[in-house]
């Protein structure tokens, strides 16, 4: 039984590490996706400002993801 507890603890640590990695990449990935979609929209509509809006919306999405993950993490009490 004691070995099962150690495996569970190690697995729990890996899950926590994976959650922290998700938080670390949320904003950069959001900015990259928003910027890419904004770039495509700029090419289609022959403008130069939609990419900036896309990056800002991607950053906002990343912040929302971080807030949701952090609030659920705090609710669990881990």
Question: What does this molecule look like?
Answer:
Residues 1-7 have low confidence and may be disordered. The protein has a domain at 21-73. By secondary structure, the chain is mainly alpha-helical. It starts with a helix and ends with a helix. It is elongated and about 55 Å long. The protein has helices at residues 2-45, 50-76. The protein has two helices and no strands. Helix 1 packs antiparallel against helix 2.
Give the arrangement of secondary structure elements.
Layout: H1 2-45, H2 50-76
Key attributes of the depicted protein:
78 residues, disordered N terminus
- Note the total helix count: 2
Poorly predicted regions are 1-7
String of helices and strands? HH
**Class from helix and strand fractions:** mainly alpha
According to DSSP, the number of beta strands is 0
Work out the helicity level. Answer: over 70%
Shape: elongated
Mean pLDDT over the residues: 87
Major sheet description: none
**Hey, roughly how much beta strand do the residues contain?**
under 5%
